[in-house]
Amino acid sequence: MSFPYLKHQSGIYFPIIPLSVSYNNHVEKTSALVDSGATTSIFQISIAKRLGIDVEKGQPVFMRGVAGRVKGYRHTVEITVANRIVSAAVIFSEEYLVSLNLLGRESFFNHFKICFNEKKKVVEVS
């Protein structure tokens, strides 16, 4: 399935795709940036709250980046993309505030063939 890049509020186009996230029979429709540079998937804390996830009951993890070390919690959720449901680890953090949900390589990319076409501004997920 092909998804056109979406224009972010910054004016830049990104490979952002629509998806559903499920946890304990709660479903939330959202979107996420397909980020080949990210190891893990990181979603906004508001998604966890709407799904009824008690964030701090997840596996504690520490992420490192330019801003230093940030604590998050890993949870396994079901993600539906292109009519396929996959189980994926997602990190939620009160400290790391993301403007976009991020789909990283770990436990997401291995379920799909992903092709970025920068020239046409399209990402294919199959």
From TrEMBL:
<keyword id="KW-0378">Hydrolase</keyword>
<feature type="domain" description="Peptidase A2">
    <location>
        <begin position="30"/>
        <end position="107"/>
    </location>
</feature>
<dbReference type="InterPro" id="IPR021109">
    <property type="entry name" value="Peptidase_aspartic_dom_sf"/>
</dbReference>
<protein>
    <recommendedName>
        <fullName>Peptidase A2 domain-containing protein</fullName>
    </recommendedName>
</protein>
<dbReference type="GO" id="GO:0006508">
    <property type="term" value="P:proteolysis"/>
</dbReference>
<dbReference type="Pfam" id="PF13650">
    <property type="entry name" value="Asp_protease_2"/>
</dbReference>
<dbReference type="InterPro" id="IPR001995">
    <property type="entry name" value="Peptidase_A2_cat"/>
</dbReference>
<dbReference type="GO" id="GO:0004190">
    <property type="term" value="F:aspartic-type endopeptidase activity"/>
</dbReference>
